[in-house]
Design goal:
Length: 284
């Protein structure tokens, strides 16, 4: 950790500023300071951002930067960056994560403009750490395909993925998506994280079938992150003694020397070679 510091750089900077995903308190002191000091805030929806700015009494000028004008707006934002800092915000969470921002960041880097991302709220991480699913590796999938066939093909392509899968999902599609998960991936552990940091926050954790039953009975509402446990490690099968004896007998009866038969059977059976060899001597 380091103490709050004044800017080390005096060149105009594009700041990527995360905003709350629900609870207005979930914004850092630094994010508030950057929003206050920037020359311009580029916002996905200026009305949404205005609510946040009013709450914190910030009066920095706003311009829109959203999915439908993001390329047309690049020049205006780069013009602003000639003389001052620009703070990019989305409606909620971290800009450029399933939100506009990626192209702006890429173009800024290409044009030699300083880019400074601030750490802060994102629904992915909030959901993941509360899910109880492994966090040591995860795959962020963005929004899942909407069409059933495409969704099933997509899930099939992930069937052997061992890391936790994290996706954004809409409440209207959640039940069908859980059905597809159960049928394509089996009854895996899943977690539905709903309305994070808001009044009706809910975590439903359990096998896909149980979570599906819950949301079939109670239609989901609000914003949702869906997490799916990665594929389980396939346990090597260990043979029992009768299986080992039978396999060994078959090889010995076929004329194979005990040493090589014991080695082959031990490998297939998950046994120590010496233990298989001893059984062979006993049976002789
Ligand atoms: N950039 C944002 C972030 O960093 O979290 C994500 C933006 S994406 C357009 C919006 C989706 O994020 C929602 O449809 C929902 O799936 C998820 N989301 C956002 N806020 C959420 C919340 N409070 N609880 C659960 N999911 C949320």
């Amino acid at each position: 950790m380091c103490a709050p510091h004044d800017r080390l750089f005096t060149v105009p900077t594009l700041f990527i500023v995360p905003t709350p995903i629900g609870n207005l308190e979930d914004i850092t002191l630094r994010a508030l300071r950057i929003l206050r000091e920037a020359a311009l805030i580029a916002a996905e929806d200026t009305r949404t951002t205005r609510v946040l700015l009013q709450h914190y009494q910030i009066t920095t000028p706003l311009t829109s930067y959203h999915e439908h004008n993001k390329l047309a707006k690049l020049d205006a934002i780069f013009d602003a960056l000639q003389s001052g800092d620009v703070a990019l915000v989305s409606d909620a969470g971290t800009p450029a994560i399933s939100d506009p921002g990626y192209e702006l960041v890429r173009h800024a880097i290409e044009q030699g403009i300083r880019v400074e991302p601030l750490p802060g709220a994102s629904a992915i991480i909030t959901a993941l750490v509360g899910s109880g699913l492994p966090t040591d590796g995860f795959v962020y999938l963005g929004f899942l395909p909407r069409k059933d066939r495409a969704l099933r093909d997509f899930l099939t392509s992930l069937a052997t993925e061992r890391r936790t899968l994290v996706a954004y999902e809409s409440p209207n599609r959640l039940v069908d998506t859980l059905k597809a998960i159960e049928s394509v991936l089996g009854d895996r552990q899943v977690c539905v994280a709903r309305e994070l940091s808001k009044k009706f926050e809910e975590f439903q954790r359990g096998p896909a079938s149980a979570v599906l039953a819950h949301f079939e009975a109670t239609a989901p509402r609000g914003e949702i992150v869906l997490l799916i446990a990665g594929a389980a490690e396939v346990e090597p099968t260990i043979w029992d003694e009768a299986q080992v004896r039978a396999a060994l007998r078959q090889r010995l009866d076929a004329g194979e020397p005990l040493s090589s038969a014991a080695r082959a059977v031990a490998t297939a059976a998950g046994w120590e070679r010496r233990a298989v060899y001893s059984l062979g001597i006993e049976d002789d």
